[in-house]
Amino acid sequence: MMDTIFALSSGSAPAGIGVIRISGPGAADALQRLAGKLPPPRRAVARYLKDSDGGVLDHALVLFLPGPHNATGEDTAELHLHGGRAVIAAVEGVLAGMDGLRRAEPGEFTRRAFINGRLDLAESEGLADLLEAETELQRRSAMALLGGGLSRVVEEWRGQVLTLSAQIEAVLDFSDEEDSADLPPSFAEGLGALQSVIGEWLARPRARALKEGFRVVLAGPPNSGKSTLFNALVEDEAAITAPTAGTTRDVLQRTCAIAGIPFTFLDTAGLHEVSTDPIELIGIERARAALGKADLVLWLGDEGQGPPDAWEIETKIDLGNRNRTSSPEMRISAATGEGMDELRRRLIAHAAAALPNPGQVALSDRQHTLLAEALASLSEISPAGDLLLIGESLRSARSAFDRLIGRSATEDMLNTLFSRFCIGK
Predict the structure, then answer these.
(1) What's domain 124-204+362-406's superfamily in CATH?
(2) Which of 123, 208, 404, 421 maximizes the CB count within 10 A of its CB?
(3) pLDDT of residue 341
(4) Is the pLDDT of residue 423 over 80?
(5) 282-285 — which CB contacts under 8 Å span 24+ positions?
(6) How crowded is residue 424: how many other Cβ atoms within 10 Å of its Cβ?
């Protein structure tokens, strides 16, 4: 039998309300000992909470949510307290003193929801993404995953694989009969359709850019205006700017949202070949490494000297002695703001095209790897091949689907996922 756990599930005190959740076989008894008697199921009732000596702890709203039809799948109680630190600490202290109760570990409530079948693994990942979401795009993608947008599709694919496996079994069962050892045409059609749709999902934009932000690296020689532009884009004096060349010695990174699109901007050390300063050389090496990981490079240097597909940006157009570029992507002055609105507009459009559509499920690295594994197994199949080998490939594909939604999962993988959650969730 599982322990009964409790934790503060609302934000840190002080707050208007503090919500303590209790989940497990002892939830009803704990609530009765605090509130005197159980309220009607799923109805919020005002009660005085008292300690073992009858001292009043708080006047609170209490709920009893019997399992299995609730968030965790087991009996759950909620205490909606006044959100002061002393109130919360007093109630937690009484709960901690009850036999059979203990404080919850991070993500333990959600882990119990997974164990009790209230959420599958993909939906649990969606909940973790939702709690971490900072932009509207991230929120909508997380809601799609939490709402079963991927799980339903994977279950459908799993059913199709089972249908294909049944066709293999049928042919094997009757293979000793004349003219009955060939797979029906529907097998190749079903296999091809399944391969095609999984390939389409694998070609979608990934969740990494959505979570970490579209990576824009500002690069160019020393004193080309990178740091001034960086500050203008993140709307903060994050980088030190000065007329002296080589002011930036390291990669400076800031994440922000522009029009709801998550960006990560990186200011880099000036790129040139004549430095003998060992610290500056380290900065230049890190700048080159950042270029290799960029989704987009804004090149502020000489025309044609930037990386392939970089946007060539002519800066400092407010100065008369600037280096002119014959056909730059943009001409701007980060100091005066000229051209900056247009640059932001184009960055938003470019990043939006590379990110998942609003409300579309974006695959994590784990999900992408397992779908790729399933597709690889299906791609090994030749309808004219050995039936036993075809059956094994179908089994491998089904196994990848099972691991994706959590029908089979290792303890280490579960620990990694649920450690992303805060205590109380």
Answers:
(1) tRNA modification GTPase MnmE domain 2 (1.20.120.430)
(2) 404
(3) 94
(4) no
(5) 282/249, 282/250, 283/248, 283/249, 283/250, 283/251
(6) 20
Architecture of domain 213-354: 3-Layer(aba) Sandwich (3.40)
CB 148 within 8 A of CB 124: no
b/e map of 213-246 (b: 16 or more CB within 10 Å)?
bbbbbbbbbbbbbbbbbbbbbbeeebbebeeeeb
Q: What is the CATH number of domain 4-115?
A: 3.30.1360.120
Cα separation, 351 vs 384, in Å, equals: 45
Q: What does the alpha-carbon distance between residue 20 and residue 79 come to, in Å, rounded to a whole number?
A: 5
Q: Say yes or no to pLDDT of 198 above 90.
A: yes
Q: Give yes or no for a contact between 355 and 363, defined as CB atoms under 8 angstroms apart.
A: no
Reading the block at residue 8, the tokens are 């503060």
Structure tokens at 123: 């939906």
**Measured distance between the N- and C-terminal CA atoms of the chain, rounded to whole angstroms:** 21
DSSP annotation string for 69-113: SSSSSS-EEEEEEEE-HHHHHHHHHHHHTSTTEEEPPTTHHHHHH
pLDDT in tens, 29-73: 999 999 998 999 999 999 999 999 999 999 999 999 999 999 999
pLDDT for 45:
96
What does the DSSP 8-state code read for residue 380? T
Comparing 238 with 285, the larger pLDDT belongs to 285
- 287: β partners: none
Residue with the two structure tokens 């799980």: 151
Tell me if 4-115 shares its fold with 213-354.
no
Q: Give 70-95 pLDDT, tens digit per residue.
A: 999 999 999 999 999 999 999 999 99
> Dihedral angle at the C-alpha atoms of 40, 42, 48, 52, nearest 10 degrees?
80
- Rounded CA-CA distance 322/228 in Å is 15
**b/e code 52-83 from CB counts within 10 Å (16+ = b):** eeeeebbebebbbbebeebbbbbbbbbbbbbb
pLDDT above 90 coverage of the chain, percent: 52
Q: Which helix (H) or strand (E) holds 218?
A: strand 214-219
Residues near 86 by beta carbon (within 8 Å), at least 6 away in sequence: none
pTM: 0.74
Mean of the per-residue pLDDT values for the chain?
87
